[in-house]
Description:
Elements: H1 15-23, E1 27-28, H2 30-36, H3 43-50, E2 51-54, E3 58-68, E4 76-86, E5 89-92, H4 117-120, H5 130-145, H6 151-161, H7 169-185
Antiparallel strand pairs: 1-5, 2-5, 3-4
Amino acid sequence: MRTEFGAERTSCACDACRRCCRFLPAWLIPADIERMIPSGTDPFEWAELNLLASPGPLVAQVVERLFRSKREPEKYERRLYRRWFRVPSLVIAAKPDGSCKFLSAEGACTIHDISPFGCAFFDGHAHASLESERLVRAGLNQSIEAGPRHLYHRLRRHLMSKALVSRSTELTRARIRGAISQATEA
Length: 186
């Protein structure tokens, strides 16, 4: 089944796919909120139990700027540069060991059918490609375009006020690399 992103949701649940679940709980986009929060449930209470505010991924935006030409002060030169910023986001809460809250003791996803964007389109078999970059941009754009009044961002601010915040993605990825390196040495 194709989604609003023009891509298929993953259905794989092999060990490689669950590896991320042990270290990096998935990130959500605004479209995930209504699907994941049970009907009739207070979204803020549900978020406190199941989500964390995240500093968000660090992304680069290529920006064009005009500068006065040093050779000809009456003219301008165009230059491209990268502007780095974070896209504030929500992620699934983690257990004390860092694994996803929704990962069962047997290693199965307990919300696979309604899993958030970060799980639904990116699994252990995903490789960097134009398609995966397009999906990441689409998810990030949805988070940005939702605006500060959207429930997604209100939940994030609420979680921040309660100090329910995830580790930075950079720290978590370093932890994953360490675990992979230990596994390959063994």
